[in-house]
Amino acid sequence: MISVAIIIILFSAQRFGTQKVGYSFAPAILIWYSFISIIGIYNIAKHDTSVFKAFNPKYIFDYFKRNTKQGWISLGGIVLCITGTEAMFADLGHFSVRSIQIAFTGIVYPALICAYVGQAAYLRKFPENVADTFYKSTPNAVYWPMFVVAIIAAVIASQAMISATFSIIKQSMALDCFPRVTVIHTSSKYEGQVYIPEINFILMIACVVVTAAFKDTTRIGNAYGIAVVGVMIVTSTFLTLVMLIIWQTHLFLVVSFVIVFGAIEMVFFSAVLYKFPEGGYLPLAFAAVLLLVMYVWHYVHVKRYAYELEQKVSTEFMLSLGSSLSVTKVPGIGLLYTELAQGVPAIFEHFVRNLPAIHSVLVFVCVKYLPVNTVPAGERFLFRHIGPKEQKMYRCIARYGYRDTRTGNVEFENQLLEFLKGFILSDNIYSYHLNNQPESEGNNCERAESIVDIGAVSENAAMNACLMERVEEELDFLEDAKKTGVVYLLGDSEVVASKDSSLFKRFIVNYAYDILRRNCRKGQAALEIPHRNLLQVGMTYYI
Q: What does pTM read for this prediction?
């Protein structure tokens, strides 16, 4: 019950962020390393100073020669002494590389060496206490303080793994490999410091269930051993790819790395697999579930995006909208959200064919999150025309950094329309100067992109009354459309496997993905679209 209570308190504190939680944990973890270092040195000095002979690699061969199979099985427990190091790489998203290097080489590694060598010195004198060496080797005078600090250290170790989980989930979402969840950035300095409420709750429930079901640390240790060695194998595999593709290391060095580290890791992995029936199955079961979720989401998302690219609205259809008498222009501004940064999504054609009416001003909005802290307000929106200017259709790419928060719908609309006004002004100025340049100069005037920067406005634009009259007319039209109202158009697409699909594909698309889609964060919630101004267009994608 005490362990369950500690788990609940730990997960409840996650919403305050890694930085604030880390500040409160830093003094405690420093005390922990000081305690184990001092006690380790005390045990070495008191019990057996000759224990340093254990650093001789000869004793490794003697140990396996003496214990044979039991020595191999014991590797499953020995590997637990290095558990936690896998979180070091996840910490790169929370702290700088230099701070991690200083902490691990200057504090963590020396403290652990002192602690383990000290325990070995104690066991040389009291081998019968091998089952509880840590607390038995602790002097009675500091037993209870050490007990309290050890509990706090265990909580801190759990905090590192929780933070690592948040970082991995966020990165998986960026690669479209995980369903949409709420990601809250808790630091303006480090991108990796995030908090995910849904994942935090699921982790808390899972930890409580595992703790209550296993009840002892032996089976939990067996499960942890398989997870740690599995992470090491995956890390070595990816490092091999980096050496080959990015670093372009000599093939001999790559093969040597794979043979040496691969052999060590496979020996440890075979040893921890021996404990599979005794709790080792737990991480593999969790990994299988996560792999299935990630595979289903990514597979369907890629197929869906490919379908949208293939079914993009043709240029002929967009041009026909201006001359078609069957399509009615209704006053107002329509903001149609799409994932396509180029082209018009098929959902638009579906909408027009079923409801032959479009807004007098239509903006295709594509929201992109960039791997930067923040996007300056002056660079938030990029615009370009879609089709003839007379149709008043625009593409807008709204760019956000990982620390930027979406503003309320009223403020978002005002910002977007202000940038649209700037685009209309600068685009008219550009067109005017392009049309009024001498032919010899016009050949040298090229425009690489049809996206216009709001700041690129000529100072002499006010000198031409005809130009300004045309601009004012367009701006007045936009303002009148705004007063009529802004409507958000969002596709409510259903993804279905095609009729010629295999049974397995039908299960993945029609059932597994559908369950994930229904239970993940909805698109309008992620985009903070007001429900009263929302118009959803249903469409079925056959993949």
A: 0.71
152/17: higher pLDDT: 152
* pLDDT value of residue 118: 94
pLDDT band of residue 89 (cuts 50, 70, 90) is low
CA pair distance 419, 376, nearest whole angstrom: 13
Of the candidates 263, 268, 543, 533, the residue with the CA atom closest to the CA atom of residue 408:
533
Asked if residues 419 and 365 have their Cβ atoms less than 8 Å apart, the reply is no
Q: What is the DSSP string of 466-500?
A: HHHHHHHHHHHHHHHHHHH-EEEEEEEEEEE--TT
* 209 pLDDT more than 80: yes
Percent of the chain with pLDDT over 70: 85
Triad 200, 184, 28: Cα angle to 5°: 60
Average pLDDT, stretch 240-253?
A: 92
Residue 242 is predicted with a pLDDT of 92
Q: Quick one: residue 367, left, alpha or beta (phi over 0 = left, psi -120 to 50 = alpha)? A: beta
Mean pLDDT of the chain: 81
DSSP state of 379: G
Q: How many CB atoms lie within 10 A of CB 315?
A: 12
DSSP bridge partners of 541: 495
418-435 pLDDT, tens digit each: 898 888 888 887 776 766
User: With 70 as the cut, is the pLDDT of residue 24 above it?
Assistant: no
The separation between CA 538 and the C-alpha centre of its own chain, rounded to angstroms, equals 29
Mean pLDDT, residues 37-49: 93
DSSP string of 66-97, one letter each residue: HHHHHHHHHHHHHGGGGTTTTHHHHGGGTS-H
410: amino acid identity, one letter: V
What's the half-sphere exposure (Cβ side, CA atoms, 13 Å) at 22?
A: 13
Strands 486-496 and 328-337: parallel
Q: Which of 132, 102, 109 is nearest to 37 (CA)?
A: 109
- d(CA 77, CA 66) in angstroms, rounded, equals 18
Q: Where are any strands of DSSP class E within 370-497?
A: 381-385, 393-400, 486-496
**DSSP-derived secondary structure letter, 406:** P
Cβ proximity of 270 and 76 under 8 Å: no
Give the mean model confidence (pLDDT) for residues 177-181: 85
Please report how many Cα atoms fall inside a 13 Å half-sphere around the Cα of residue 144, on the Cβ side: 1
Work out the average pLDDT over 65-91. 77
| Residue 285 to residue 288: CA distance in whole angstroms | 5
Residue-wise DSSP of 304-358:
HHHHHHHTPPPHHHHHHHHH-TTSEEEEEEEEEE-S-SSS--HHHHHHHHHS-EE
CA distance 15 to 346: 40
Whether pLDDT at 460 is above 60:
no
175 close to 185: Cβ distance less than 8 angstroms: no
Torsion over CA: 317, 322, 325, 329 (sign): positive
